[in-house]
Amino acid sequence: MAGKQVCCFLSNSNKFLKTKLPISSVITRNNASWEPKDTITHTEQKFDPEDRRLVRFVDRPKEVNENWAINLIDDIPPEPKPDRVVACDGGGGPLGHPKVYINLDKPGNHACGYCGLRFYKEDHHH
Description:
It is found in: Mitochondrion inner membrane. By secondary structure, this protein is α+β, with helices and mostly antiparallel strands. It contains two helices and five strands; from the N terminus they run ααβββββ. It is about 15% helix and about 15% strand. The termini are far apart.
């Protein structure tokens, strides 16, 4: 209805209409702070206190994903392989990565450069 009255007002600019538009209320922010609570990210991103981009964190927490990929991949134990060379494609298909070959000749764990999965050569010598 208000839109109709505004259209009439614009088309008949020499006439004044009494419109009953709602008065917008003043919204106050309680406990507003320009200093967001800084949460540490895996890249240790920090903003300068004078950075304008900090305005997006006023009255909102800085959302940080606690499941960092480096910690999630550490939860997967290294996989023993009988071969000297192992191929890793990260699961294959659209969820994987290009196939890489990892040499397991040296002792210890060997990680894939793309996904971080670890492999080691199991010894068959008793």
